[in-house]
Amino acid sequence: GESVGLHLPTLSVQEGDNSIINCAYSNSASDYFIWYKQESGKGPQFIIDIRSNMDKRQGQRVTVLLNKTVKHLSLQIAATQPGDSAVYFCAEKRTGDKLIFGTGTRLQVFP
Amino acid sequence: GAGVSQTPSNKVTEKGKYVELRCDPISGHTALYWYRQSLGQGPEFLIYFQGTGAADDSGLPNDRFFAVRPEGSVSTLKIQRTERGDSAVYLCASSLTGSNSPLHFGNGTRLTVT
For the domain that residue B82 is a member of, what is the CATH number? Predict the structure, then answer.
């Protein structure tokens, strides 16, 4: 079946280092992708989005890269901080505006 | 401005009971979504409204689940004859237009069926 998946369930990084969270998707018809951050007890928080006509988009300390050839999405966080510790989800929007989420990657930041 | 508001934040009910979960979206957002999230999993799509109508209800697991949005703003998710397997966090999100605009989530209602 079609799915949005993540390569690593847990990522541990040192404070100040850069983090890269990866995501694979299988539906080539998806045209919009979003990264969310979720802290314990809270709803997913929007981080950054990208449309399929782009391959890179930058925000504050975050960059999303989209490789449509291999159906791969990544989130790069620069100078990772303890407050970045959370679960990160990629999500793809398929036909009919339904947003499908992956299972998530837990980011742990150590001082 | 105010974000998406969900009430109650926690709900404990007995197996077989009926529950209603409420969602107040961001003012002006035409699209509203319901998701369900189990522990350690990503949110699972249930239903999506564009205005007052359900544009896609393909994620509702069975006919015990129903949702309404009568005036195109507040939405209620209704679960009849609750089962222990319905226990999860129910998330609501709204979006300005639905099409290629980000979803903004509330903090969810944690439903526990005993």
Answer: 2.60.40.10
Subunit contact A43:B91, Cβ cutoff 8 A:
yes
CB atoms B93 and A97 under 8 Å = no
- Report how many Cβ contacts below 8 Å link chain A to chain B: 57
pLDDT, one tens digit per residue, over A7-31 is 448 999 999 999 999 999 888 889 9
- How many domains are there within chain B? 1
Q: Which fold has domain A4-110?
A: Immunoglobulin-like (2.60.40)
Pairwise CB contact (< 8 Å): A34 & B43 = no
B85 phi and psi, to 5 degrees?
Answer: -70, -10
Percentage helix, strand, coil for chain A under 3-state DSSP, each rounded to 5? 5, 55, 45
Q: Does B108 touch chain A (CB under 8 A)?
A: yes
Domain that holds residue B44: 5-113
Asked if B104 reaches chain A (Cβ–Cβ under 8 Å), the answer is yes
Chain segment A31-46, per-residue pLDDT in tens: 999 999 999 999 999 9
